[in-house]
Specification:
By secondary structure, the protein is α/β, with parallel strands linked by helices. Helix 4 packs antiparallel against helix 5, helix 4 packs antiparallel against helix 9 and helix 6 runs parallel beside helix 17.
């Protein structure tokens, strides 16, 4: 049986780093807290991504809250997906209480309240700075996913994007999407079929019905302009602290498709916009995705492959991703294998399936001579976790049973008045307050339809005799011209179908969507 001295030496060797790091707690040996061996995480490995797992009520939310505020304190901006609505307290300093005092006495660490520079964001009816995306920036892959389309219908959407790109039709909002679909199946049907292939009116009808469905879920609130600028996520205050950005999503809990597609679009656009950073002493942005299983629910094989690729590549942009969920099995193996920081709270074995899940969860962590991992997972208390991180050389550290530090911000929600006061202090809210309505696909196509009808009427007036050869319409003339035949261009959208759109980006500076 390993002894205490060997345990302490293992922790000290594994969790001592040369570069800057943050302390997340102290190791536990046979229910004794070892104060002389802090469990640390090097800042330089936070862009190697992470997992925070555990059953409901075991402390996952407080763990991500503590990590976020410590990163902010070190000058790293964070983005939190608050889908349960219980993270707003991070905006104000916490207050000490007997439980906090007892915990930090065991840890041998002084607890201090932390005041974070917080920004509340919203894609729905929740109060906060508006985040918007254009339909073009979503791209055909993600748009098809949010509309829950089959392969044939997805092909129609891909054709729509191709036609819009070739004809310089900006797809900004739901109105543009609907108008273009209607044009493809009605006035522009001959033009589309001649140059792009047949369009099924049945598929168009199904897509239009699904558009109504997502409008009822509130999708129209974040399709539009101005698009959000990612520079507004990565800001430092006058004390050098990173911005704590909280996206309030509690009113989309019953709309997982909306939330997950929004998240994927956000990741793809961040990847497309941020420059290559290489190896950095600390990441620029760390994103915490609560209820992460929603991202992978009902995802196609193609989409899973693209997510895996995104996770692998985005770290080079100085961005770290943390997935928060109940069980590691909620995350596909291909993604789970990319997560260098793993923090496992308790799991409960109430059923045979639970026991199998725990057995599988234990296999995700390094083998330890000090723990029976599978058994210990069921015995962890609130605010305790099994932890392994990557050291500065990219090697996993020994698994350690850790008592975690308490957050320095409030571990409760803000009141309505406090929330309103925090939002009023925003320095960017006014920038996104008013929605723009510039000329886009719907207006351009409306003019084109009017000109087409006028041309057809003139043709009928000039050639009243039946059986005669009809003059070509306005659209046919344009298509058959030498310019029309050579104007088709290819547009590579890249990851998740949203990384192109150079013409869109020229109209705005480094937008998030």
């Amino acid at each position: 049986m390993a002894d205490k001295t060997g345990f302490i030496q293992t922790i000290q060797n594994g969790y001592t780093f040369k570069g800057d790091s943050i302390t997340i707690g102290m190791p536990v040996w046979n229910e004794e807290v070892i104060q002389e061996s802090p469990v640390r995480v090097p800042l330089s490995t936070f862009n190697r991504h992470g997992l925070i797992a555990g059953a409901t009520g075991t402390g996952k939310t407080k763990t991500l809250q503590g990590l976020a505020e410590q990163l902010s304190k070190k000058g790293v901006s964070v983005l939190l997906m608050d889908i349960k609505g219980d993270l707003s307290g991070i905006a104000v300093p916490g207050e000490s209480n007997p439980k906090i005092e007892d915990r930090h006495k065991l840890l041998g660490l002084k607890w201090e309240p932390i005041e974070n520079n917080a920004e509340f964001l919203s894609i729905s009816d929740e109060p906060g700075t508006r985040m918007r995306a254009t339909v073009s920036e979503f791209g055909p892959v993600l748009l098809s996913r949010i509309l829950e389309l089959n392969d044939v219908q997805s092909g129609t959407i891909s054709l729509l994007f191709k036609y819009s790109d070739d004809n310089k039709l900006p797809l900004l909002d739901i109105t543009d999407l609907r108008k273009t679909l209607q044009y493809m199946s009605q006035e522009g049907k001959d033009e589309i079929e001649k140059n792009y292939g047949l369009v099924s009116t049945t598929s168009v009808g199904a897509i239009l019905r699904n558009i109504i469905r997502i409008e009822e879920q509130g999708a129209s609130k974040f399709f539009g302009e101005p698009s959000f600028d990612i520079d507004d996520l990565i800001r430092l205050d006058n004390q050098g602290r990173g911005m704590v950005n909280v996206v309030r999503l509690s009113d989309v809990q019953g709309k997982p498709q909306l939330f997950s597609t929004f998240m994927l679009c956000l990741l793809a656009e961040i990847y497309a916009t941020m420059p290559e950073r290489g190896d950095m002493d600390a990441p620029e942005l760390v994103i915490f995705m609560d209820e992460a299983h929603l991202i992978f629910k009902d995802a196609t094989k193609e989409l899973l492959n693209q997510i895996e690729t995104m996770v692998k590549l985005i770290r080079s942009k100085g961005v770290g991703l943390f997935f928060i969920t109940q069980n590691p099995s909620d995350i596909p193996d291909e993604v789970l294998g990319q997560l260098g920081f793993k923090l496992q709270h308790a799991l409960r074995a109430f059923t045979a399936k639970d026991r199998k899940d725990i057995e599988k969860a234990a296999e995700n962590y390094p083998i330890s001579e000090y723990y029976d991992t599978e058994n210990l997972i069921t015995q962890l208390g609130i605010g305790e976790a099994l932890v392994t991180v990557l050291n500065e050389k990219g090697v996993p550290t020994p698994l350690v049973h850790t008592m975690l530090c308490a957050p320095g911000s409030r571990m409760d929600v803000l009141t309505a008045d406090e929330l309103e006061k925090t939002i009023r202090k925003s320095t960017i809210a006014q920038k996104y307050e008013n929605e723009l309505d510039r000329e886009s696909a719907s207006e351009i196509l409306a003019k084109k339809i009017e000109e087409l009808h006028q041309s057809q009427q003139e043709t009928e007036d000039e050639n009243p005799k039946p059986g005669g050869r009809e003059e070509k319409s306005f659209v046919e003339k344009a298509i058959s011209s030498s310019v029309g035949r050579t104007v088709v261009r290819e547009l590579t959208r890249g990851l998740l179908g949203v990384l192109g759109l150079n013409s869109t980006r020229k109209r705005r500076k480094n937008s998030l969507f």
